[in-house]
């Protein structure tokens, strides 16, 4: 098994790195990071078999690039770049061969179709407008969509940090139609979202508030009911923190969130009524952990620490959700995105 980590390329990083994972249980270890794709600013990327789709910051242009693994090397296939900043997120539907990008700076959501060879075709875009912007400095300059991906029923959902909103769309005849919006509390800084398996609840994390909001919803009537809200950081923490990635375990029993500033991963257990119980807050053993991810069996977790240029490997307990660090200070530059792969 291997781990791919990409991120900013402002300092030492040159693109996307590969780290081999060997051993088992507490003896598992990640090897030395090896550059496999030279690309500027791959802060988020997705894989589909031998294809890889990465965000690309190309100076005064930004967008996505596609790569194909051939003869054990990744070769660039296609790119779609527009003037201005690059997107912050790219989602994927491997069955429909669709990609979804959210551009934090330009407030544009885009949908692409890709071929089996990795060729990209832009289908549609929408631009978020300012609607009751939040009061925090990061929100006052406009809408900031930070996430765009699919819902359990196959619609699309965006998280907008500037508007404190979760927006739902439908893609029909390659065109986006806005369906509904859910408004988080003012100053929440809506960033990323995960859904329960039954599709009746979502858990949305606020970057600016360092909170998780649990919401019951109906994807047919578009009714929303806020169930509860929880802090991802201790009440005693007074420094600056930005909550980042959120993940839900495959058995619907645990929620995980990364904290940039408190520099930790917070674990919650999901109760039967979908409220949350705090389980653990474990150090990231580095600074500014933006993304983390697990292997297909959810046995191992890797967190990438962007500003300390390192990663941490954890062993996950499936029964109680807890994380045990088994390897620290794994050298990898400016990491913001983690994927496990074969």
Automatic annotation (TrEMBL):
Q: Which InterPro entries match?
A: Cycloisomerase_2, Haem_d1_sf, Lactonase_7-beta_prop, WD40/YVTN_repeat-like_dom_sf
Q: Record's Gene Ontology CC terms?
A: cytosol
Identify the PANTHER family for this entry. Answer: 6-PHOSPHOGLUCONOLACTONASE, 6-PHOSPHOGLUCONOLACTONASE-RELATED
Q: What is this protein called?
A: Cyclase
Give the protein family.
Belongs to the cycloisomerase 2 family.
Name the coiled-coil region(s).
none
Molecular function terms, GO-annotated: 6-phosphogluconolactonase activity
């Amino acid at each position: 098994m291997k781990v791919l980590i990409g991120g900013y390329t402002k300092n030492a990083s040159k693109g996307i790195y590969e780290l081999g994972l060997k051993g088992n249980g507490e003896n598992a270890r990640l090897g030395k990071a090896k550059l496999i794709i030279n690309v500027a600013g791959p802060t988020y990327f997705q894989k589909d078999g031998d294809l890889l789709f990465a965000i690309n910051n190309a100076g005064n242009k930004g967008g996505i690039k596609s790569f194909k693994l051939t003869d054990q090397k990744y070769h660039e296939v296609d790119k779609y770049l527009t003037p201005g900043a690059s997107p912050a997120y790219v989602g994927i539907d491997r069955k429909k061969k669709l990609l979804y990008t959210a551009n934090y700076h330009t407030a544009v959501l885009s949908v692409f179709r890709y071929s089996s060879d990795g060729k990209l075709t832009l289908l549609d875009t929408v631009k978020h407008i300012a609607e009751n912007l939040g009061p925090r400095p990061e929100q006052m300059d406009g809408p900031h969509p930070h996430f765009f991906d699919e819902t359990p029923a196959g619609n699309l959902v965006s998280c907008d940090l500037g508007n404190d909103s979760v927006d739902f769309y439908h893609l029909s005849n390659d065109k986006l139609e806005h369906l509904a919006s859910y408004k988080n509390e003012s100053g929440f800084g809506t960033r990323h979202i995960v859904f329960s398996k039954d599709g009746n609840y979502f858990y949305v994390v606020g970057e600016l508030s360092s909170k998780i909001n649990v919401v019951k919803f109906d994807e047919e009537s578009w009714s929303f009911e806020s169930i509860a809200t929880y802090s991802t950081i201790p009440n005693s923490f007074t420094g600056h923190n930005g909550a980042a990635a959120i993940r839900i375990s495959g058995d619907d029993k645990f929620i995980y969130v990364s904290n940039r500033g408190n520099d930790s991963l917070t674990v919650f257990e999901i109760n039967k009524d979908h409220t949350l119980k705090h389980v653990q807050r474990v150090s990231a053993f580095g600074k500014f952990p933006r993304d983390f991810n697990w292997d297909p069996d959810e046995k191992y977790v890797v967190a990438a620490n962007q500003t300390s240029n390192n990663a941490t490997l954890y062993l996950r307990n499936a029964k109680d959700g807890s994380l045990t660090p088994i390897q620290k200070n794994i050298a990898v530059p400016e990491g913001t995105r983690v994927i496990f792969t074969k």
